[in-house]
Amino acid sequence: RSPSNIVDEIESCIEKYKIKGIKFFDATFTVNREHVLSIIKEMKERDIHLPWECELRVDTVDKPLLNSMQESGCYYVDFGVESIVEKILKTIDKQITSVQVTDSLKWCEELGIKTKVFFSFGHLGETLNDSLRTLEFIEKHINSISKLTISPMVKIYPGTDLEKSARENGLLPD
Q1: What is the pTM of this model?
Q2: Given a cut of 80, is residue 142 above it in pLDDT?
């Protein structure tokens, strides 16, 4: 949808429902930088000042983008990390690095943006040492994490690469 249509809907919700804030439930919200900046620009042009939250991917943000988001009312971001161990991130095709996670946390803290960060344990090939490394990362960065969400297990959904791998490794029956 176009930024104009999105901001039309926001305006409609403000008028009709008197909303006081909004959350963009889209794990790929920041994948298209220009789209985010266009929404911010459109909100500014319409003089919409509303606190907002979004989901993001740490591999799609940098400090200037986060700064623009914060200046337009973004006060909270949610992102999944799952594991801080590079081999696990590759196994689950997360396409992020521990450096990107660290940078994103640092930038959000500097800009006063709250963070909700998701971690999970029990990935294929994950060892106790891998889990401990992730827990050490969490402990080191806990002051930059506003809300920590930990899943003690990985969910296997039908039709996913994880289901295929679990079956190939004898972890799921035929």
Answers
A1: 0.92
A2: yes
